[in-house]
């Protein structure tokens, strides 16, 4: 008879339907591919009760770096113009985040899966791992942009960072291969 490991015993005690799953959503199509994978493979299981498990979709906004450049002569122009630009950028970022999460929520609604959304500010790779730990997430799912080694070295990879630093199991969903030859 085969021995059961601690991990498999834990999975038997906590059915898949009761898992707390987090999906990172950003403005890339790959994050929506990851969400679709979750909806099709975890919540699309025959007999699964969608509302039994918790699905959290998180969007991390990078902090706005404020750079002040004079818009014209005199201090009033400098400060007034900068404030207007900062507020415009903040509002645009909030609207973009709301639109992304509305699209993600609609995908969940189409599959009859209840989900919650969360918007936080910070470095995406750090915040995703912090939230996964704080919220006691059972499974973290992120999309992969499929960066090559050189781009990944210079730009960094959120999925690679999470794979090495998240305290829970992680699934990295690769983008579908393009068959254009």
UniProtKB/TrEMBL annotation:
InterPro entries: Rossmann-like_a/b/a_fold, Universal_stress_UspA, UspA
Domain UspA: 17-174
SUPFAM superfamilies hit by this protein: Adenine nucleotide alpha hydrolases-like (SSF52402)
Entry protein name: UspA domain-containing protein
Provenance organism: Acer yangbiense
